[in-house]
Amino acid sequence: MLRFLTAGESHGRTLTVIVDGLPAGLLIDGDAVTRDLRRRQQGYGRGRRMAIEADAAVVAAGVRHGRTTGAPVAMTIENRDWVNWAFTMHPEVDPPADAGGAHRAPVTRPRPGHADLAGAIKYGHADIRDVLERASARETAARVAAGALARQLLAQLAIDVASHVIAIGGASAEVCGAPFEAILALPDDSPTRCVDAAAAARMIAAIDAAREAGDTLGGVFEVAARGVPAGLGSYAQWDRRLDGRLAQALMSIPAIKAVSIGIGADAARLRGSQVHDEILPRAGGTMGPEPAFPAVRPTNRAGGLEGGVTNGQELRVSASMKPIATLMTPLRSIDLETGAGTAAAIERSDVCAVPAASAVGEAMVALVLADAVLERFGGDSVDELRHRHADWQRQVEQRFARPRDPEAS
Ligand code: EPS
Q1: pLDDT digit string (tens) for 386-409?
Q2: Does residue 178 sit within a domain?
Q3: CATH number of the domain within which 353 lies
Q4: Which residues line ligand 1 (CB under 6 A)?
Q5: Residue 285 has pLDDT above 90, yes or no
Q6: Is the distance from CB of 354 to CB of 27 less than 8 angstroms?
Q7: Is 403 a member of any domain?
Q8: Looking at ligand 1, which residue's alpha carbon is closest to its atom 20?
């Protein structure tokens, strides 16, 4: 089982992440981890925090001479901004007055849409900073570091994960069908991560208009995975269905309000003949490219999952992100100290973070797929995992290599 835990606050000293269950012998590409982290910092409409941070992960455990040992991998990500918050975030009961940064007043005016009010009620906090520091989207940097390791494990089995943005506010691209290669070709510093240039221009205009109005925008991103073996997940038990596990992983990203598998909610208003992907014989019965399969599917509206199990098609899952909760033209709220009506607090923030969220979505999908691959094939070392995966592929080849003789018993 592959698990990960994160710790750390947005303006604390560091973020920390522990990834448990990686097989031994995986050569870790640190530059690739940094690349994933930097991609999360990109996106038109990101806030000024991104000019402060240059996210990179320092490996603190579980890796020796570049390779995983099978022990838990621990990584830390420095918050460069900590120096400006050291007094506010100091762990000591009486922080030294010269610890660093302003001596900030408690936050008492919850922002509608963030965890502020619910968190203050739940944990009994008088200062909402004790909520927002952990609820902040900053935590997703730790998930991206963990996801980068999962991505590198999946690459050992020729499984690739990529993402693109299909809508920001009312500006949307062709919803389904962006080819995987076109998604992969998006530059890391793409301002919108949208493969449709005309839609990307509309997205940027929508972000500019929202900024001008002191408002914010959300949108929709899709994560695609190629080379995913059939048979991951199971319909045998509710919590083993991979669609549910992927949905939970994506829903857990801050600000996500809906997840779709394949064509998602559109399937509810169409007929079966317009939704289900037919199964056609592969021409000549020969085995085609990965996955080794006798069948071809002319469509993939199911997004690579049927019955909670991968079917060998590309995985396509999308997530809908609500607009950022901090508005520069704040909405109405109350002051928790007095109960009086007032404007919500204003924290430094983004206007739009959908491209960043798509990078987080990739990480979460990679983590779920890596867990499902280890669950399906096992292996305490990467070599063992690779051999077991190759053996399964050979079995599928043998089983389907020739069209069955209808006369055969
Ligand atoms: C973010 C870090 C935060 C925010 C933003 C995204 O840093 P700071 O609070 O210092 O500006 O910029 O977080 C949110 C918009 C939010 O609502 O949590 C990040 O690292 O992604």
Answers
A1: 999 999 988 887 887 665 555 544
A2: yes
A3: 3.60.150.10
A4: 10, 47, 49, 81, 114, 136-138, 141, 324-326, 347-350, 356
A5: no
A6: no
A7: no
A8: 138
Give distance in angstroms: CA of 10 to centre of ligand 1. Answer: 7
For 174-180, what is the mean pLDDT? 79
Q: Is 129 exposed, middle or buried (0-12, 13-18, 19+ CB in 10 A)?
A: buried
Distance CA 64, CA 26 (A): 10
- Spatial separation of the C-alpha atoms in residues 144 and 366, rounded to whole Å: 10
3-class DSSP state of 108 = coil
Q: Is residue 37 part of a domain?
A: yes
Confidence band of 271 (pLDDT split at 50, 70, 90): very high
Beta 219-226 vs 67-68: how paired, if at all? Answer: unpaired
Alpha-carbon distance of 242 to 234, in angstroms, equals 7
Instruction: Give me the number of domains the chain comprises.
Output: 1
List Cα–Cα distances, 140 to 9, 15, 135, 153, 371, in angstroms: 11, 10, 10, 20, 19
Nearest to 59 by CA among 50, 72, 41, 43: 72
Query: What range does the domain containing 256 cover?
Result: 3-398
Question: Hey, what amino acid is at 230?
Answer: A
Does any domain span residue 274? yes
In this prediction, residue 409 carries a pLDDT of 41
DSSP state of 265: G
What is the CA angle 300-306-308, rounded to 5?
135
